[in-house]
Specification:
Helix content is about 40%, strand content about 10%. It has about 500 residues and is an alpha/beta fold. It has two domains: about 90 residues, Non-ribosomal Peptide Synthetase Peptidyl Carrier Protein, Chain A, CATH 1.10.1200.10; about 290 residues, Rossmann fold, CATH 3.40.50.720.
Length: about 500
């Protein structure tokens, strides 16, 4: 808890923030417009956290980075911070800033699908050999591998929704993403067709005519795109993750009925109501109370929308991966994902928290192969699949392996580890930018998000039906063992993400 030092006026704070932002961006202060959204200056999460931490020190307040969403300009943010200073002149600030600024959500009330979204007809002919498929998430990690598997397992052309200035730039974004993960082949060139649009916009940012043309010509729709941010509230992610899903369902339903293959998340079972219980693929997920992470809230609502569309007659499949790790053979992974950032940060401070976590991440090749294979089976329609790792291992296994590999690390009590986080002052440590996610306290119980992932508070997610559906396909989830750790470590060290010595 930080004790307030002094009262600041909105003008003082605004002047200070302009100066600091100019320093961060290496520009002159007079080029900063206090009425422009901070994100328009390219303020990424790392730089935003630099600004937040410096503001904490200067004001003597604990500043929630979530405020950067609710008050996106310097002018608005300075006014809000000045009000916080005034409120806390005589008392310590309530640290639960996120819950102060975000009203309690009723996720069930959010799960309302546009009544106009109904299958265009009752006629539907399933094909396991599609000619044209539409895909969102082409520039993401999992999306890249889904494209790869679609191009390998089918002869289909893949129409990829992408934000870009023109078609050439859009094609290059998709190509560069596949190259980044080492899965580009020149033979893919003619089979990848960029569709310029925006997931957060009505009709996906596509013209009515082009939207209808896609609806008439696609044989299947794959929706894997979602905005993931560890600190943004539901309201900040709703447009892309919830309303975007609604628009993709609209596309699947219009003119010609097409199966919708939706990439959800095991996060739909994050409510404490499921703690200690076994949840199966076909179980309902009606409990939403206690889901605090904005991203998880959007995935709960979005999957509900997909289920509603399924009840209206749209053919659907739902795929729920956990955290997704790197490729099990090449080690290639997303260095911006939570697992890698956490490991790197812990290695830098030399400590891991002593927590009862289970590592249940699934390699990206297992997840992508499973999604595409299952989507091509007629018997999959109407079903959900849990792509959870069938044999998760305790976090201690990773720590033990890291120690044997030569890294000097110590396991310390969780609260002591959290105290270490507070003292991290350099954005060079990934834990610096993860602090809001790791330390923010929610609800009357004042729990942190990581508290929700303790083994005792999580469900046992069954993937038996999924494994049965994959039987005979040669798709097997690789074990989380020393071989896999070695493959991942080799990639992270060779790429320069983790430094030895």
């Amino acid at each position: 808890m930080i004790v307030p030092k002094k009262l600041e006026t909105a003008e003082d704070i605004q002047e200070w923030m302009v100066k600091k932002l100019a320093e961060l961006l290496a520009v002159e202060p007079d080029t900063i417009d206090v009425q422009q959204p901070l994100e328009s200056y390219g303020l990424d999460s790392s730089r935003a956290m630099v600004l937040v931490t410096q503001a904490e020190k200067m004001l003597g307040l604990e500043v929630s980075p979530v405020l950067l969403w609710h008050y996106p300009t310097i002018e608005a943010l300075a006014q809000r911070l000045a009000e916080d200073c005034e409120e806390n002149t005589s008392e310590v600030q309530d640290t639960n800033a996120a819950s102060k600024s975000s009203p309690t959500l009723n996720l069930q009330a959010e799960a309302v699908l546009d009544p106009r979204i109904y299958p265009a007809s009752s006629y539907f002919a399933f094909t396991s050999t599609p000619d044209n498929v539409f895909l969102t998430g082409a520039t993401g990690f999992l999306g890249a591998f889904i494209i790869y598997e679609l191009l390998k397992q089918t002869n289909a052309d893949v129409y990829c929704l992408v934000r870009a200035a023109n078609l050439h730039a859009g094609k290059n974004k998709v190509k560069n993403n596949l190259e980044k993960y080492g899965i580009w082949e020149d033979s893919f060139e003619s089979r990848i067709i960029p569709i310029l649009g925006d997931l957060s916009q009505p009709l996906l940012g596509i013209s009515q005519e082009a939207f209808e043309m896609l609806a008439a010509n696609m044989d299947a729709v794959y929706h894997s795109a979602a905005t993931l941010n560890y600190v943004y509230p539901y309201s900040a992610l709703k447009a892309a993750n919830v309303l975007g899903t609604q628009e993709v369902l609209r596309l699947a339903s219009m003119i010609k009925v097409k199966p919708m293959h939706y990439v959800s998340s095991v996060a739909v079972f994050e409510s404490p109501a499921y703690a200690g219980k076994v949840v199966k693929e076909d179980d309902d997920f009606n409990h939403w109370e206690g889901i605090f992470l904005g991203y998880s809230q959007t995935k709960w609502v979005a999957e509900k929308l997909v289920k509603i569309a399924g009840e209206r007659g749209l053919p659907i499949t739902i795929h729920r991966p956990p955290l997704i790790s790197g490729h099990s053979e090449t080690g290639v992974g997303n260095t911006d994902d939570f697992i890698n950032l956490m490991v790197k940060g812990c290695l830098q401070i030399g400590t891991f928290p002593d927590v009862d976590y289970m590592m249940d991440m699934s390699p990206v090749d297992y997840v992508s192969k499973s999604i595409v294979h299952l989507s091509l089976q007629k018997e999959s329609l109407g079903k959900a699949f849990n792509l959870q790792h069938p044999q998760p291992v305790p976090l201690k296994e990773l720590v033990n392996w890291v120690s044997k590999f030569g890294f000097a690390v110590e396991v310390i009590p969780y609260e002591e580890w959290q105290n270490q986080l507070v003292n991290i002052s350099s954005p060079d440590n990934p834990l610096y930018t993860l602090r809001p996610f790791l330390l923010q306290r929610w609800s009357k119980e004042q729990i942190t998000i990581p508290d929700l992932y303790l083994k005792a508070k999580r469900p046992f997610i069954s993937c038996d039906a999924t494994l049965q559906a994959l039987a005979g396909s040669n798709i097997v989830c690789p074990p989380i063992d020393s071989k896999l750790f070695m493959i991942y470590s080799a990639f992270l060290i060779e790429s320069g993400f983790i430094q030895m010595g």
